[in-house]
TrEMBL record:
<feature type="transmembrane region" description="Helical">
    <location>
        <begin position="144"/>
        <end position="166"/>
    </location>
</feature>
<dbReference type="GO" id="GO:0005886">
    <property type="term" value="C:plasma membrane"/>
</dbReference>
<keyword id="KW-0812">Transmembrane</keyword>
<dbReference type="Pfam" id="PF02588">
    <property type="entry name" value="YitT_membrane"/>
</dbReference>
<feature type="transmembrane region" description="Helical">
    <location>
        <begin position="103"/>
        <end position="124"/>
    </location>
</feature>
<dbReference type="InterPro" id="IPR051461">
    <property type="entry name" value="UPF0750_membrane"/>
</dbReference>
<feature type="transmembrane region" description="Helical">
    <location>
        <begin position="7"/>
        <end position="26"/>
    </location>
</feature>
<keyword id="KW-1133">Transmembrane helix</keyword>
<feature type="transmembrane region" description="Helical">
    <location>
        <begin position="38"/>
        <end position="65"/>
    </location>
</feature>
<dbReference type="InterPro" id="IPR003740">
    <property type="entry name" value="YitT"/>
</dbReference>
<feature type="transmembrane region" description="Helical">
    <location>
        <begin position="172"/>
        <end position="191"/>
    </location>
</feature>
<keyword id="KW-1003">Cell membrane</keyword>
<feature type="transmembrane region" description="Helical">
    <location>
        <begin position="72"/>
        <end position="97"/>
    </location>
</feature>
<keyword id="KW-0472">Membrane</keyword>
<protein>
    <recommendedName>
        <fullName>YitT family protein</fullName>
    </recommendedName>
</protein>
Length: 193
């Protein structure tokens, strides 16, 4: 029964991540941090598929996870595959979502970041993840005494800083809002009693 709950959380978290990415961030060229942020930068500049880039960029991180924590590796690889798949499956529906729900870039950045952070936070709470930098953050949190959400927030800041330089100042501004919103959601979901 425990594994059923874990897989249900992986599906729910991955769905929230895909909705936040495809329907809130991509339309306004807003970035997230971590591997998704790197995939978004590559998508905005070169047009590569987000899910595929996530898969490719995750390989080195999964090698580290294989060495450090095999159980987390197995749980995270499932999360990464499911979230990448959902991002690709929902991408064609972006037009329909935007047709019925029109938000500006500020509101979209807040909602998108919050959805991604909630999806990630739920997965981390059940000792799984999407395998990106959140996987590294979870591993590092065992050695340094910082909340996983804070470590992710710092990593995300670096990635959106680079993305802001490569894409635009607006991208950077809205991406800061997105990662702060996501960091808050992740921190709330991963609070320990």
């Amino acid at each position: 029964m425990k594994s059923f709950h874990k897989y249900a959380i992986i599906v729910l978290g991955s769905l929230l991540i895909a909705i936040g990415t495809d329907f809130y961030l991509v339309p306004y060229k807003v970035l997230d941090g971590g591997i998704i942020g790197i995939a978004l930068i590559i998508n905005y500049i070169l047009g590569f598929r987000i899910g595929l880039v996530i898969l490719l960029c995750s390989i080195p991180i999964f090698i580290v996870a294989w060495v450090r924590n095999r159980e987390f590796f197995y749980n995270s690889i499932t999360g990464m595959l499911v979230s990448s798949l959902f991002i690709e499956l929902l991408a064609p529906f972006q037009y329909y979502f935007l047709y019925y729900i029109e938000l500006g870039p500020l509101t979209s950045s807040m909602f998108g970041g919050f959805l991604l952070g909630t999806g990630l936070g739920l997965m981390l709470r059940f000792e799984t993840s999407t395998g990106g930098t959140d996987l590294l953050a979870n591993l590092f949190s065992k050695y340094i005494h910082l909340n996983v959400g804070i470590i992710i927030l710092l990593t995300d800041g670096l990635i959106i800083g680079i993305g802001g330089l490569l894409i635009s100042w607006e991208t950077f501004f809205y991406s800061v809002i997105s990662i702060v919103s996501g960091g808050i959601a992740t921190s709330i979901c991963t609070l320990k009693n």
